[in-house]
Specification:
Number of domains: 2
Radius of gyration: 19 Å
Strand content: 15-25%
CATH architecture of the largest domain: Alpha-Beta Complex
Distance between the termini: 26 Å
Shape: globular
Structural class: alpha+beta
Number of strands: 9
CATH class of the largest domain: Alpha Beta
CATH superfamily of the largest domain: Cysteine proteinases
Number of helices: 7
Largest sheet: 7 strands, antiparallel
Order of helices and strands: EHHEEHHHEHEEEEHE
Amino acid sequence: MTTPRPTAVTIDRRDALRTLGTAALMGVGLAAGSAGLSAPAVAATEITTASTYMAQRNGYYCGPTSIWMTLSAKMDTPPSIDTIAAAVETEAYGATPYWTMDDYLSTTLPDATYRFEQISGKPAGSDAANLLWDRVTRNVDTGYASIGYWQAAPNTYPTWYGNPNRIGHYVVIDGYRPETRELLIADPARDKLGGYTAPKYYWLSLQEVANLCGSYGDRPAGYFW
């Protein structure tokens, strides 16, 4: 089953400036005949793609499902999950090899060239995190989603789930908040993590995402952009 992505609130900074003045974006009170009169609160800017959410149907289809969601940002009718899984060599006991995914995305999505960037080790360095930010936000600005390939060490999956073992997982990086440098994650896992149901969408800090995209031992990790 697919779920249309919730509509995010996006505020054009130029329009806000014209309407409320610079003080509105800085949270500074406006002097309008009274010292107690302050600017209306401005919601945080959220910039997202037009993708559609889909939950993975088994414990090893996170790769094909993340590809499907990524394609849905630009395609009205992406290929079926089984077609994608066959093309990227998804296996029940080996999941999806990461080296098959960028080629499939690039050949399937018109006008796109996806690449895989590995992040070495945890925690991710600031240079690697900033590069991730620059790339995935540029993708979102042009309507493209990115994919994170996570290697979550024990007890490091996002805080509401204390994973006892390592988790290798694909997720979609689907939007960002420029003021707080947070990234929107579309997580296909739902109830396939074992004894826990993941939210469809959640926000993580840039550093959290970069750390999850960092390799773990001899297991590579990174992101497709």
